[in-house]
Amino acid sequence: MDAWGGVALACAGVGAGLSGSIAGLASLISYPALLATGLSPISANVTNTVALVFSSAGSVGGSRRELVGQYRRATRLGVIAIAGSVLGGLLLLALPSGSFERVVPWLIGFGSLTILAPRPAPVAGEHTAAEDSLPTRLALFAIGVYAGYFGAAAGVLLLALLLRTTADSLPRCNALKNLVLGLANLLAALTFALLGPVNWIAVIPAAIGLFVGGRLGPIVVRHSPARALRVIIALAGVGLAVYLGVQAYD
């Protein structure tokens, strides 16, 4: 990779970090950018997962205000997501890359539309029974598996789950999403660092851009109308689902 390629990858990383911390769609930008450098799909996928650790670091750093009072909740949810993510990472290394390609668009489309569904008025810090229910834990584990295996729009799926099972505001749910998914992604990244074909030269510029974009994302969420932001996230997720669906069923 030459210097201009590194600059382009860093710029793509900024956009990916912003879209990831706001809408959970970082891989929509970062994964194709890594493919454009000439990496194979598997190498681009595992390299992307490692670089996304820095997006999560930036997002969590920028969301400290929204994360106040949520760390115990994040630990509880994070353990489940981490277990799923490690399994997903191992499945990626063991199974053909197209194993789930026909299921993914439906998952993303459903999760995106769920974000638009009416919900109770947000109450900061309010605990709901749905948070600890078995269906919620199973759904969280499945999202963790998906995040470790492929990851595109995993943040959309997790945000949709949190909006349906908690009474917190969108900015607080988004901050919790970034932290929980960041923990899950970290474990998957460590798995890939030990066992996967990570391109470390590509990780460096991508990580720099992802950190900057991830750091700026929570500021955008904090100052944006919640309803409009939910519509934008949902439409972006549906657009990705359609795009992946056309590829899968073509």
Give me some keywords for this one.
77% helix; mainly alpha; 0% strand; 11 helices; 250 residues; single chain
Give the structure's gist in a few sentences.
The protein is 77% helix and 0% strand. Helix 6 (104-114) packs parallel to helix 8 (154-165).
Secondary structure: elements and pairs:
Layout: H1 3-23, H2 27-36, H3 41-62, H4 64-67, H5 71-94, H6 104-114, H7 134-149, H8 154-165, H9 170-195, H10 200-222, H11 226-249
Helix pairs in contact: 1-2, 1-3, 1-10, 2-3, 3-9, 3-10, 5-7, 5-9, 6-8, 6-11, 7-8, 8-9
Largest sheet: none
The helix tally amounts to 11
Contiguous uncertain segments of 5+ residues: none
Task: Write down the Rg.
Answer: 17 Å
Identify the overall geometry: globular
Overall SS class = mainly alpha
